[in-house]
Amino acid sequence: MPSSVHSYRSTSSLSYLPTPVTQKTCMTAAVKRYRYLRKLLNFEQMDFEFALWQMTFLFINPQKVYRNFQHRKETKSQFARDDPAFLVLLSGLLCISSIAFTFVLKLGIAAFFKFFLYIVVVDCMLSGVCISTLLWFITNKYLIKSNYKGQDVEWAYAFDVHLNAFVPMLVVSHIFQLFFYHIFLRHDWFLPIFIGNSLWVIAIGYYLYISFLGYSCLPIIKGTQILLIPFILLFIVYIVSLAANFNMCQMVMDFYHYRVL
């Protein structure tokens, strides 16, 4: 087990307050980016075992993952990851899901690469940049505690929260459901629609909940309950989709098929 896993266990709870870091000990964003990109070109420096542990616990107990982020703030003066291993493993998951969709949608090799590019660039990265920037702005503008004025939420951490939340959503909506799509979920009966739509609600709910945990564990912000408001909209859409006999799985498949053709 990697040393990082042992490190997080020393943190007792989510309410743990890290030791304040002075401006002199904080690295600039440019230095953090340089170190991160340098590691991205050297696989030997990446801790894939710990990254896999994080992905696993995002399903089992995501609070433990964020305790490690707090430990990193105490020891390395930053909440955001300094190891790109998690991003590399996520890229592998995206590739696997793209291959699975290629078989389900009966796409060719060229369509596969086009689909994979869409999934990585648009669905994961571009949407992540937009969502992370929005939440980064909201938290820094409105949710910083008065006694922490002058400190802010790192944008890189906001993007890490997106990546954390994206993993369970990807597995549930882009991998798990594919096993049952052709034999069950594509039909327009009530039971397939109920199960298929429920899977999408679980996937999006995972994203919302893990995002909420990511910000609620930060000691410098308050009122993170506001981030749970989208659950209300999600529940309303879910009920309306069932009442209208609307098959979310089929809609997504049609959209993906149209996008690559």
What does this structure look like?
By secondary structure, the chain is an all-alpha fold. It has one domain. 72% of the residues lie in helices and 0% in strands. The chain contains eleven helices and no strands. The chain has helices at residues 3-9, 29-40, 48-60, 62-76, 85-105, 109-143, 155-176, 178-185, 190-216, 230-243, 248-260. The longest helix is centred in the middle third of the chain and has 35 residues, at 109-143. It is globular, with a radius of gyration of 20 Å. The termini are far apart.
Overall outline: globular
Helicity, in percent?
over 70%
Whole-number count of domains? 1
Largest sheet composition: none
Secondary structure class reads mainly alpha
Low-pLDDT stretches? 1-25
Number of strands: 0
Mean pLDDT: 84
Report how far the terminal alpha carbons are from each other.
Answer: 45 Å
Order of H and E elements? HHHHHHHHHHH
Radius of gyration: 20 Å
The proportion of strand residues reads: under 5%
Counting DSSP H or I runs of 4 or more residues, the number of helices is 11
